[in-house]
């Protein structure tokens, strides 16, 4: 998440996490042109690109406060370009689960690979995860892990909102 602001072209303007169908969570990131972030919103026509990153969350054995993540898809939807609504343009979508069927077929034919799973049954070693430091009805504080795995990553506070429309 921290690296999203490293682009010289686009800057994140809002980040939401939508969890309406657990264990699926959709991270919504609104991007604006980097130059637009330097000026008052009334002085420059706005542009907005919305990214939706779909993840599947899972518990981790032996770590009650750790949430494992498997990335399932990405969708980029243009919303506004130079002050004009363009949300009727088709999104660019990438399905990150297409290879699951192939992996499952190979695993069923190769001796010794029957425990290989791509469907989230055993994702204790999946590389994506975060630790929950605090949670209640209005606030979630997580700690993202950095590489190497022993390093502490950034902390993020997610506050409940009623609306995430652009």
TrEMBL record:
Superkingdom, taxonomy of origin: Eukaryota
Protein name: Plastid lipid-associated protein/fibrillin conserved domain-containing protein
């Amino acid at each position: 998440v921290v690296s999203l602001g490293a682009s010289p072209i686009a800057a994140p303007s809002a980040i939401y996490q939508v969890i309406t169908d657990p264990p699926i969570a959709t991270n919504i990131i609104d991007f604006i042109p980097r130059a637009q972030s330097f000026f008052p919103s009334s002085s420059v026509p706005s542009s907005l690109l919305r990214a939706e990153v779909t993840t599947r969350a899972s518990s981790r054995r032996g770590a009650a406060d750790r949430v494992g993540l498997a990335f399932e898809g990405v969708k980029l939807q243009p919303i506004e370009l130079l002050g004009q609504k363009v949300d009727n343009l088709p999104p660019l979508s990438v399905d990150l689960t297409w290879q699951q069927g192939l992996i499952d077929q190979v695993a069923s034919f190769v001796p010794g690979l029957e425990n290989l799973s791509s469907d989230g049954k055993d994702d204790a070693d999946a590389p994506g995860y975060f630790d929950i430091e605090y949670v209640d009805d209005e606030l979630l504080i997580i700690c993202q892990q950095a590489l190497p795995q022993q390093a502490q990553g950034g902390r993020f506070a997610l506050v409940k909102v009623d609306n995430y429309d652009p």
